[in-house]
Every structure is written in structure tokens, then in C-alpha cells.
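We append the chain.
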Amino acid sequence: MKHWGDLSQDAADHMTAGSVLDHAELAVVVTDRFSNVLYWNPFAERLFGQAERPAGAERAAPSLGIMEKDHPLAIELAKHVLKGGVWEGTFDISRADGSIIYVRAQAVPLRHTTGSVTGIVITAREAMRSNEREKDRFGLLERIGERLAGSLHVGETLSRVAEMLVPQFADHCFIELTEGERLIRKVSTHVKGWTPPPGTWKPVGSDIRYPPGHYAEIALRRQETILVEDFAQSGYPAVSEASSRLCGEIGMTSAIVAPLCARGMTLGLMYLGLSNLTDRRSPHYDAFDRDFVGAIATRVAIAIDNALLFEEERHTAESFQKYLLPRALPQLDGLEIAVRYEPAAPLASHGQGIQTQVGGDWYDVIPLSAGRVGIVIGDVEGRGAKAAAVMGQLRAALRAFAQDDKPPADILARLDEWTRVVAAPDDDAFGVGVPPIVTCQYLVYDAWSRQLSFANAGHAPPLLIVDGTVTELDISEVGQPLGVSAKGMHADLVYKEETRVLPPGAALLLYTDGLLDRRPARESGDPQLSYDEMLGALREQVAKVSTESVERIADAATDAIPGEIDDDMAILVIRSAGKELAYEERTFPAQPIMVGEARRMAAEAFTGWGVPEDSAELACLLVSEVVTNVVLHAAGSSVPRRELIMMDGPPLPFDESWDVPGLDNDVVNEKEFTLRLRRGDESVWVEVFDQDLRLPRIRSAGENDEGGRGLYLVDQLARRWGSRPTKEGKAVWFEIPTRR
């Protein structure tokens, strides 16, 4: 070398561009205009943790390990640079060994000699592992904040924290949260391939107690970030002898402990440690690292606090919804039942915590008289505490109204009036009160006759499943939603009762609109389906499992529509029995001598059904009491005016019209009662029908009275009893258990 800067031929041969890039401690990646990797240097291979690209092979830039959520960022980089700009930013990289690191990258255009952009040159380095740590710091904090904001579940938040910090910033990460006066370890994460031996460092779930003077105890007490720059030059007390011995074995070199504080409260500690388990440029933390970890801890604490608040709200919401809906379904004869309820996903939809966890959808199954059952599906528009509160009140009111055993149209008419009271209108943008839309369908099913009576208040018709065919239940009259009809309008003008007979083994699928109100998943790119398309998909999936159990049908319906639930959803599936249920029915003249005949009929039926003797005797006794009550009141009741027959000749005066010769005898002879007996798995039901409109009531018989105790005996000895009006008069019923 004759002059400064002159190179020998041998040195010049080693100063080629390729040789320089091979020795550079900086990742260099070159791509074409389509983001196919044309070149990368050895450092890039080590940084991205990818296998060496075979000669002549092409690799798309996102396959370098850029995490899926950052693919839009990579696309933005390419678009910007191919237009001639310069791009700089931070990527999350998933390496082949499963570790995740942050990479700071700068991209510039690769130009042809003509000046046109032919590709992209990317230089990259691991963030916080260069001399530009201050420059990287703000970008990394922003990225960490974004990742933490993506979760509102404590467990997921903590796992993301550990994933971000190990192995990039630490070999060991512990996170402990306070629970009352205790400090509980929630995270114990270490470099890949190493776990602490049993009996050394305490595992997740352990109660952690740091001795006084320990650097973690100081951080918790002072609420400040503590740096242990070099364990070889410090003398803090050890947590335990086994812990101290393990620290020596793995060569613990440095640690940072940061308190997790949010809203003036200390939530716990975050502990980061370095050891000789990894080969790092610097095995010790410094003051810059301490400040940076303190800033990270602040964001982690806020994320944990948000997650804890959300989980508390979610628990409150789930408890709220749990106790508003039926906690257990009754066991009913001749009917299989399955139900499902799904709240709208809060993160996938609106992210408003409790506002999206509860809603106004509900279902109910109500045991009625003599084994009959009331079936309800309803939906209060909207979601949140108000919708759930309105739903809870309507469900309770409908349950109370249903006990009157009136027709479904009358029940909905009463519920319509009640809705005006509990569902106060909300003012719209113009100050006009707009009541919430409440839809409901109420059905009454008799498993012995297979008769289904129902009325509809603006709700979607259920699906009828018969012999593998799925169709909508034919509903001629769909009434208006509850609470919106004109006041004073008679129930017959608003809600119409209809009756169908279900074939043996037929099923009904009742659902709320949340089942079909799905939107495509954000990552899928699928188009939004129309209502008819979603209904068609639902029918198709249900038809595939139509012969399976009601639970399987409910599952298939829940999963039939692809996409995310945008509203809460309720499903109720019922199936009629495939065999006939045992019953006997006979009509008798309303004469005292028929009491014994009725009892004899009941005794023969109970014997034929194999009813236990004590239950049969008790039922026969109560049959005598109820029939006697019916016969006595039928004989003493006046003739209803509607029974009067017009006769030839001039009209009679009103008083004389009741004294037509022979009319009393004709009418008395027409009086009769019907005894109906039903056999269930665990009970027998007895119903007595007559034409008297007066409902029975328990009398208080005097000490010397000969009568007045019949219904008192029924009330005391039967499991349940009651009466209900019918189109011809009334029915008195009671239930006797056959299993003790």
C-alpha cells in the first residue's frame, strides 16, 4: 500500500459488495416489484430465523415471518416505496423456533439505470438491540400498546405480555397480581426449551412472598421500578435457598422489577431477568432499560386493569342473564326440549363490555294444567341492561298470565298491555318517544292430543321438521309486536289463535333473529348473505340432522350460519313423542249416581296403567270429591239465558220466559260432565269438564258442616290442582305423583 486508502489486490478481491454484505451486522433484503425476495444476506437469515433460500427459489416478503396482523403494513410499505418514497416502521416477526421479536425496518426503492423503480431494498435490525434504542423506543411502545389493546381477557393479556418480552428483552418473565392481601403468580415464562426444576422457582398459581429488603419487595413498597444491574455486585436477600441456588446455576446476571399501577392502585409486579441461558451482546440491564420497562409496565397495568374491569362486567352480565332466563327446564311427558342462548361477542362487535353481553332475547317453558305446556320465544329490540330488564319483566309477567290457562291470544293481549307499562319509550333525535320493538310467540302444546295452539306477536315463524323436511310453520295471522297496537283494541282484533296437530316425532325450531343476523368474519372477506340465503342455509343444515336428537338439532342450528354473532340469540327446539300417551275419557250425565261410575272408571284405568296402589286410591278419592262438587253445582245452577229456545207465538214476558213447561227438565237432562284421565311417567292427571262457568274456590267449612271440605282435600292431597275456563264452561284438574 503506497498511499492511504490504497488496497492490495488481495484486499480488493474481498471488498466486493457481496463480501461486505455477508459480514454486515445488518439485515439486507432485496425484493422485486411483486415482493418476491431476490436476495438476503446471512444476517437477515439469522434475524428472521428462516431457513436459507434455495438457489433460484422465490419467497414472498410476508413469508419472512411477518405476523399476519402486520401483512397490511407490509402492503402499505410496498405501495409507498414503489411510488418512490421511503418507509420506516416496526414489524412483529414470528421466527421458526416460535419466538416473536420486534424488527425495525427501513425500505427504499431499488432503481434501474433508467431511473424506474424495479424493486425494494429493506434494511432491518432487531429493535432495542442497536445504538438507536432511543429512536426505537417510541415506536415499540406504540406497538406494544396496540397489541395489549387487542384483548380484554386477563389471561390472554398476560400471555401477550410474556410473548412480547421473552426472549427479546428477557430470559425470564414473572407476573404476579394482587388478590386481596396476597400476591399470586400468574405468569412464569422462560427462554424456549428451559423450565425451572421443581422445588426451585414457584409455579403459576403460587402465593409469592418476597422477604423484606428484596428488590421486588422494595419495588412493590415504593411503587417504583427497581434495577439490579449486576447480581455479582449486589447483596439482596434471597426468596429461598433453592431459588438462590438455581440463580447461580443458570447465571442470573441482571433483573428489573416494575410495579403494575393503574388508577392509583397497585395491581401486582412484572419481573424481567437476564441469565447465561442465552448469548446476548449485553447480559446486563442499564438505566435506559429500566426506564423503558417502566413505560411498558404502565401500559401493561392499564391493559390488565381494563381486562379485570371487563371480566367483572362480563361476570355481572352473565349472572344477570343467567337468572333472567330459566335455570333448568322441566321434565315433560311426550316432549323433548333443547335450548341455546348466545350473547353477542363484545370484542367482535361493539366492544362496549356489558352493553353487548346481555340482551333482550328469551325463551321459556311453562308447565300448565294436566300436563300441558306453554312454550315461549321472544325478543326485545336492542341489547344492554335496559333490554335485559324489560325482557326479565315481560318473562315474569307472561309466566304469571300463563297460569290462568287462557288461550294464547288472550295471554298475548295481556302481555301487550303490560309492555306499555314496562317498556318506556326512548326519545329519538326529534324528541318523539319511540317504544322498543318486542316480538313474541306463545304456544300451548298438549302431548296427549298433539294439539298445538299458538298466537304470534310479530315474531318469525318457527321451523317445522317432519320426516326430514324443514318448512316454516304455516301461520295465517301474524299480529303486531307487543306494545305498539292502539289502546282499547280487542284482543281478537290484534292477535289470532290458531291450532295445528303435530305429527308423531315432529319437531319445532323456535329462534330469535340473532340466529340469522350474522356478519362475515373480518378476515374471511366473504360477502354479506341475504335473509333468504341465511334462512335457506339454516333449513339445509337442520334437515341434515332432522332425525337426530333435539340437542343435535340445536347445535346444528347454532352453527348453520357462518360469520360472527351481531346480536344475542335464543333457540328452543321441541319434539313430540313418537308414540301415543295413555289416556281415558268418558262423558257422564251430571247425576249423583254417576259419582260412583266415575270413580270406577278411574280405578280401572289406574289398574290397567300399573299405577301404584296408594297413588291410585288417593286419585280415586279426589275424583269422587271433584265429581261430587261438579254434580252438586250443576244441579243447582240456573239455566243460562243463551239456552232459551224461541217458540212459536207472541214473545213471553221476561219473568214468564223462565217458566216454560218442560223446559227445566230438558235442560237439566242435558247437563253432563266429562272425566279425562292422563298417564305420565311420574304422575297421573285428572280433569273434570262441565258447562258451569263459575270457577271453584275453597270454602271455610264450619266445625259442624257436613260439606265444604272437598276442594280442601284436593288442595292438601294433590301435588297441584287448579281450574281453567273452556269454551263450553270450565275444567277442574289435579295431579297425583306416581313416584315417591
In short: Residues 647 and 672 are 25 Å apart (CA to CA).
